[in-house]
Structures are given as C-alpha cells and as structure tokens.
Amino acid sequence: MSAASKNATVTVDGKTRYHEPAPAHIDVEAFRQTVISRRSVRKFTATPIPQAVLDDCLDMALLAPCSSGLQPWEFYVVRTPAKKAKLVKACMSQLAAKTAAELIVCVARTDRVEEFSRKMLREWPMPDVPKLVQRYYQLIPYNYAPGPLNSFAVVKKAAFAVGGLVAAVPRGPYTSAEVRLWAAKSTALACENLVLAFRAHGFDTCMMEGFDEVRVRKLLGLPDEAFTVMVIGAGERADDGVFWPQIRFERELFVHEV
Ligand SMILES: Cc1cc2nc3c(=O)[nH]c(=O)nc-3n(C[C@H](O)[C@H](O)[C@H](O)COP(=O)(O)O)c2cc1C
Prior knowledge:
- It is globular, with a radius of gyration of 21 Å.
- The model is unreliable at 1-5 (pLDDT under 50).
- 40% of the residues lie in helices and 15% in strands.
- 28% of the residues are buried.
- It contains nine helices and six strands, in the order ββααβααβααααβαβ.
- The chain binds flavin mononucleotide.
- Residues 39-40, 42, 94, 96, 206-210, 230, 246 line the site of flavin mononucleotide.
- This is Nitroreductase family protein.
C-alpha cells in the first residue's frame, strides 16, 4: 500500500489539506546499522538472492526522491546467462561482477520527460490537479528540451542570465549535458536506496562505474537518450568479500556550517 492511500485530510486555516503524518517510531539504530554496515563487497558467495528480496529492494529503489517526480531511471536485472557473461566482460571482469548473484544495470533516461509529465497529470493522486501543478508539468518538457545542437538551451541560458541580474532564476538544466546530469542525480539516489535495501535484507552490493559504456549500451539496446549510471553487483558477502576497512577523511573537510 502506498503511503498516500493510508492518509486522509486535515483542516488548516479553514482549508482542507492532504495530511500525511510523519511516522514517529522509525528505528534509527536499525537504520544506522544498515548504513554503517554497507560496504563495497568485491566477492560474493554462490548463495542466490530470493526473488522476493530482489523485488522488494527494487521497489524501495523506485521510492527514491526524483527531480520533479519524473523518475528518470530504469533498472535492468541481467539474468540471461549469455547476456550476464557479456555484462561481466563489459565490467572489465571485475571480481564483484564475476561473483555477483545478480547484476543490475542502472540507467538514466532523458527522453521520457514529456511522456511522464503527461502521465503525472493523468495519474495525479488527488481528485483535482492544482492549477500550479498543471502549469508546471505543461512547461517542464520545454524546460528540459535542449533543442538541436543545444540551440534552445543557449537561448534559455541567455534569457535567464538577464533575468538573473534582478532575481533568482533557474540556471538549468538546459544543455543536453545538464539534462543528462539531471537524470543521473535522481538515478544515483535510487541506486543508493537499492544498495541500502539489499543491506537491510542481509545482502551486499558493489556499485561499479568501471564498465565499458558502449558495450553495456549495445547489450541492452539502449536508445541514445539513455545512459548507464552504474552497474550494481549484489549477493551474499563472502568471508573475504571486503578488502580493507572503510576509509573516510576528517569530517571537517566535508561538513561546513556557514
Ligand atoms: C559511483 C561509484 C562507482 C564505483 N565503481 C566501482 C568499481 O567499478 N569497482 C569497484 O570495485 N568499486 C567501485 N565503487 C566502490 C568504491 O570504490 C567504494 O564505494 C569506496 O571505495 C568506498 O568504500 P565503501 O563503499 O566500502 O564505503 C564505486 C562506488 C561508486 C559510488
């Protein structure tokens, strides 16, 4: 059951509003254990991942936050032996790929913005689509269309640069590179959900960007507007599956209160 279907409305300032209360009893220690016990595992045992676990993890991946709610991702669980063998090779025959019970190719797509904007308006989860929301999803496809040779992007950038002299304006994503980055950000968040979900189920993963993008594209028959963000190997951690203790530099290098 989705979170939304369990919820009701609340009256705020005399107006009826959607109400989804923050759950109070999340076990932070269980979450912390999931996060801190996640390691990149490079060697897995031969134990398979039950289908129900795999499905649950993928479902949790799909709940990751995503820009404008547009879910610019796809996950290919590569099972066919011949395809899997090719994928292992495309992953430079890394041990993490060779020994993984499952190999999941995580793909970002930039070509479904218009289709999903329309779908969003059709499937809006409340009886009426607010005017602002309607307008937003009508505009978004234009916003994310770079045009031939980034021609639309150049015009939009120039226009917003002028507007930006007097007010805060969106500076992108306009160019095709920016739109790819846009899709990759949300896809990477789903990847993190996926690996944490596997960990919570007692399985482990290795995110891999060490792969031959051209070979993976060919193997999956991906269109030009899709690209592989990472390949995730998953399985049961072998006793010698983690190669060294986790390394993280001093907190001060990364966390700033300004
Ligand atoms: C985007 C990304 C790509 C990665 N690619 C590889 C890879 O190709 N092969 C590999 O063995 N590890 C890969 N890793 C794992 C990192 O090396 C690992 O996360 C890092 O060393 C920190 O270790 P930890 O994950 O155990 O905390 C990748 C991690 C990320 C986030």
